[in-house]
Amino acid sequence: MNTHLTTALDLAARGVPVLPLRAGKLPAGNCRACRDNACGGRPNMKAPGPCTCPRPCHAWAAATTDPVALTSRPWRAAWADAAAVAWHPGGTGLTVVDLDHTDAVTWARATLPTTRTVATTRGEHWIYRGAIASSNGVRDGVDIKSAMSYARWLGPGTGTMTTLPDTVRALIVKKPSPVRPVTVPVPAGGGECRHRTPAYLERGIAMAEERITGARSAVHHTVYRTFLAVLAAHGRCGCLTNDHMTRLFTAAQSKGESPRHCADAWANATTALGM
């Protein structure tokens, strides 16, 4: 039996979701049916999609503990070409702090609580109990691999695994980008104002802000649809001001949207409404 498949089956039996990696630490490429999101899975597999393809062609989302799937015909070619075995840390409730060079390892030893470590080609993997969102480049030479990510299996490592510290959790918290001025104008209006009181407009802007900041997925789409709704309700009578637009852009940028995307979404919404 293929050595990598033997390792994968052993890990799967211990509840660790696994998948084959090609040379270069790459997962299996999408099959023809799943290419370009044709299968309905979400782009780049940032979240699990509805695809039920039996092939290992969806990166971390293909990771499994099912020995029948791992040894099935659709997986055999992938194992035959495999250069390594990968595992999905978040799928087993763990987080890997991937330290890519000696400076990163020195930082970790001075900053993070000791835990199980695994030697890598250039650095170390520090493994903690607890899953969080994954994020690459949280600092020089440091990646966080947990939910929706995979790491190379390089052995069980040494040392006692400890609980994920707040120090690591803080590394993935994104600070809101400062709001930058934009050149997209507020519609001039000129139509009859249908608002009975100024409070109606204020409530609408506040609700729009809450809708954007409360988005947990599809942020781009939520921002555009919210801008469209605000402009449809308030854009033709001249009540909207630059202050209102700035509030909406601030909410969008707090969710990671760039000033350019905010401007594009606003311009697209005005165009869609014929303003």
Short description:
The chain has 275 residues and is of the alpha+beta class. It is 36% helix and 15% strand. The protein has helices spanning 3-13, 67-70, 73-81, 102-111, 166-171, 198-213, 219-234, 242-254, 259-272; strands at 18-22, 26-27, 84-87, 94-99, 116-119, 124-129, 135-139, 142-145, 151-152, 162-163.
Walk me through what this model shows.
Helices cover 36% and strands 15% of the residues. With 275 residues, the protein is an alpha+beta fold. Helix 6 packs antiparallel against helix 7 (219-234) and helix 6 (198-213) runs parallel beside helix 8.
Mean pLDDT: 85
Percent range of helical residues: 25-40%
Our measurement of the CA-to-CA distance between the termini, rounded to an integer number of angstroms, reads: 66 Å
Question: How many strand elements?
Answer: 10
